[in-house]
Amino acid sequence: MKRCIRGILLVLVVLGLVACAASPAQPLAVTDEVLTGGGTSPETTVESFLNDLNKAIKDPTINRTDVRDQWADTLSNYFVPVERPTQRIAIRSSLDNVANGIAQLSADQTVMFEIQFEPARRVNDVEDIVYIEVPNATIDMMISQNSNRGNTTIWKQNESLGYLIGSDENIFPVMRVGSRWYLTEN
Questions:
Q1: How far apart are CA 32 and CA 107, in angstroms?
Q2: What is the DSSP letter of 27?
Q3: pTM score, whole prediction
Q4: Alpha carbons 118 and 70: distance in angstroms, whole number
Q5: Residue 166 in contact with residue 38, Cβ under 8 Å?
């Protein structure tokens, strides 16, 4: 049980670090084909990414390889085009870890993840990067066990997303490329 909880926590830390741990990718020519994903504003980009990340870690079919591939594609498309290949690999690896952690639960146990946040807001602009804060962004994690007495919570934790990504704040850098806004590790 403790191994499973540690595994799930490790997965969440890795997911949080995706945005800042990947190495720079090779330059990519900016074409109309590449300018997909992202969002129409910095705030929308961050909120949409967190909403899709929430859906991904809650997906009941996350144990399937093709589903993890689809989520890795979806989530990496929120990043600037030159960072996508590296981000896709990191995200896919994190989703593999989520699936492996869930697979370690016994048949009578379930895990629940919930990312919650208030509306995103712009806090700083530095050159071509806009910094977006997501106030009160948290991830709730809970493992429940079903028995003849009903469903019982056996472990619960609530962490700041900033804590999970190694920051005291819930701030995401976002960059404009063409007419779209993308998360960036810079």
A1: 47
A2: P
A3: 0.81
A4: 27
A5: no
Cα separation, 128 vs 74, in Å, equals 24
Q: How many domains, in total, are found in the chain?
A: 1
**Considering Cα of 114, then 52, then 185, then 73, what sign does the dihedral take?**
positive
For residue 76, the enclosing domain spans 2-21+30-183
Sheet holding 138-147, edge to edge: 109-116, 138-147, 150-160
Residue labelled with tokens 């990414």: 49
Quote the strand ranges of the chain, DSSP E: 109-116, 121-126, 129-133, 138-147, 150-160, 171-177, 180-183
Q: What is the tens place of the pLDDT at every residue in 78-136?
A: 999 999 999 999 999 999 999 999 999 999 999 999 999 999 999 999 888 999 999 99
Between 81 and 5, name the one with better pLDDT. Answer: 81
Task: Report how far residue 113's alpha carbon sits from residue 115's, in angstroms, rounded to the nearest whole number.
Answer: 7
